[in-house]
Amino acid sequence: MKDLLPAYAAGSLSGPDRDRVRAHLADCPRCRADLASWQAIAVAAAPAAAPPDPASLVRTVLSRSTIEPIVRRPPRRVRHLVALVAAEARLIRPAAPIASALVMALGAGLVLLRTTAGADLMLSLIAPIVAAAGVAGTYRSRRDPAAELLAATPTSGRLLLLVRIALVFGYDLVLALGASAVLTATGAAGADGLNELVGAWLGPMALLSSISLLIAVFLGPDAALGAAVGLWAVRVLAGGVLIPDDWLAWSIIGVWSTNAPVLVASAVLATVAVAISGRGEPHGGGRATHPM
Amino acid sequence: MRPLTLWRYEMRRAGWAAFLGPPIALVLGIMAALANPQPSDPTTARILLGALEMAIPLAAAVACSSLVGRDPARELQLASPTPYRVTLLRRMIVTLGWTAAVAVPAAVVLIATGWWARWPENHGAFAGQLTWLAPTVGLSGLAFAAGAVFRSPGAAGALVTSVWAIQQFFAGSAQAHLPGRLLYLFATTRGAAPGDWTANRLTLLGAGAALIVFALVLLGRSERLIGEEDE
After folding, report:
1. Are B69 and B147 in contact (CB under 8 A)?
2. Which of A63, A201, B159, B208 is the most exposed place for a label (fewest CB within 10 A)?
3. Residues A64, B122: contact at Cβ < 8 Å?
4. Would you call B66 and A225 a contact, using CB atoms and an 8 Å cutoff?
5. A22-45 per-position pLDDT tens digit
6. Is there a contact between A222 and B229 if contact means CB atoms under 8 Å apart?
7. What chain B residue is nearest to A284 in terms of C-alpha separation?
8. C-alpha–C-alpha distance, residues B145 and B150, integer Å
9. Which residues of A touch B38 (CB under 8 A)?
10. Can you say how many angstroms the Cα of residue B107 is from the centroid of all Cα atoms in its chain?
């Protein structure tokens, strides 16, 4: 019976022999196992399918390429960046942007209700500290729930920090611009146009945020928040009770204004902070080889 | 755990901001007084009292805004038999206690050297301690409550600093009506309506206490504290 199995597996056995083998296989597990081996050999030895005709293949491909639309996908780098922004946006807790919007709405509301004078002064007081407080929390620390995961990702720490700064600072920038536009449109800003209103807060916002970021990279978020509040308090007190209206007060006010040197200094500080952030491990994080 | 060990642990957990903030604020105030180009007695005395009434409360409030939301052992704290809000209250007491430990000796020195009496609105040596105590409790209560609501030290710090700055710049508007006068933080050094000072100080203390109670009620819902990981 074993001699008939190769022919049975190849399908070349005649009718009576084929029926006899089939009946035997039903009762013999050993021959069934042999048959499985022969069938595997038969499949492997079977001739390959005939190659397609080259002429018709080229014709088919060319005609299909003219009929079907070309799907243009964005370059890989852009897609990667969009994915990074989306991922970072998910890591920002909603409470912080909600609080920023509430504080900005409080300032704009007080101006709109005519309870205070000076839309430019109000926005120049609120916008910088809101942005700086947000930026203070952007740099990774071990308190960040995603810190270990982010430390293990192959994406550069500098790029992640840049993306997060762009999200946080960009959001606060849009908030301040929106508040300025509303106050200008409603006439609450008085004679000031949108440019004057933006000029009141843009420079201080950029400078305080960049200082906050630099301190966050060196000393962590608590120190950054404390330093930002301290610096801003000195600015607020300039010309008031603690710092009388003299050359010192005017020097402080001059530093916290919108002009080219202030904006350039802000950019330099932010660049230094981002460059430093890529060196070594995040502040406060235990090193990977920390002894137990 | 012995009580002393526990309190020492809470002092460490309160953070550097709580420890360094009030002394730095006081030093800045003293430097501002030394740099005053018009060294007439009332002006310098006003700057020194201003350091107690303006700078120290802000430093304490920023420290209190960082108490909720940045504890890496939060889940461990929530699993321990001691309610986490009691732990946070303990850290707030440590923060305010340290602020008092800085402010009281400074006030004693000012009283002993006569600078305290040189400001006409000083309200005496004992009741006058409300100069720094009332705004410290009021602003810190706001910071603690904002921290409990937002669970973000940055957001709470920004809110507190904005309120402080608005009251600095818009003193006239803030005191234009009774509620604003009662909640004004700088009634000693920037003036208050005659007879309003005591009511203002007591209102600030009451508002601060109410905000702390509100924060403790909110912190009792522990799911709010661990929910951020799902966001």
Report:
1. yes
2. A63
3. no
4. yes
5. 888 888 888 888 888 888 887 777
6. no
7. B72
8. 9
9. 244
10. 16
